[in-house]
Amino acid sequence: MTEIPEDHPRHDSLVTRHRIEDGVDRGITSRQGLVAQGRGEAYDYLLGEQTLPSADGAERVAAAHLLLAEHAVLSVNGNVAALVPDEIVELAEATGADLEVNLFNRTEERVERIADYLREHGADEVKGTKADARIPGLDHERAKVDSDGIHDADVVLVPLEDGDRAEALAEMGKTELVIDLNPLSRSPQTASVPIVDNVVRAVPNITAHASDLRDASREELEAIVEDFDREAALAAAEERIRTGAADGE
Ligand code: PTJ
What's its EC (predicted)? Predict the structure, then answer.
């Protein structure tokens, strides 16, 4: 990979792009993942390539949900594995959540490669290889889940995907925490907690909030969850994109 100087104005964005390219070369990211990354970059540019105060709030709420969950699962696709392998494992450790590989362009080979890659980055157990249960109402490969993983979960973190699984998980009564840079996309629109932020910033920030909330009581965590206004979070991100105004300013 070409060396990118630290002071390059687009340093972070270029490093992120290279990670996706590397993911494709390793066979963990699909070629469609390159297109998804391009879409994400465009929205991130419009959001100012920073975590908005509303997104930071949503990330704290996501941390509270993960800590309150009976059984939380972090869903991992080819882009997430390439972009935040260490960080998603750290989030699983900080919250006691399971990791499960779930792919849109599913091949068993890619599921295995992603699971191996996460284990290389410190994961103990990675679900998603059994695929012995189905999400009702979905007719594509994302419906394939583990019975003791996403199928059983009460809270699921769903970073960066198209919208119909988000709707189907909501139908199953699960709490969905969605990370997506496009506030108008179907997945954040249907999420219990829409997080409009780059997965590269969002995942470590959810972990930081989880560490901060580690000693909080159940009542405190429930109050954080109840105070959350999902419509306001979506509106703040859209406002930033349309007018350049950051919420709280
Ligand atoms: O690995 P697979 O087979 O499961 O495939 C994964 C992709 C991402 C290719 C697949 O889910 C897909 O095609 O997704 P879409 O329909 O392109 O949607 C991706 C969404 O994620 C878009 O709304 C993008 O704006 C958003 N996005 C892209 N990069 C990021 C992002 N959101 C947060 N952080 C990013 N880095």
Answer: 6.3.2.36
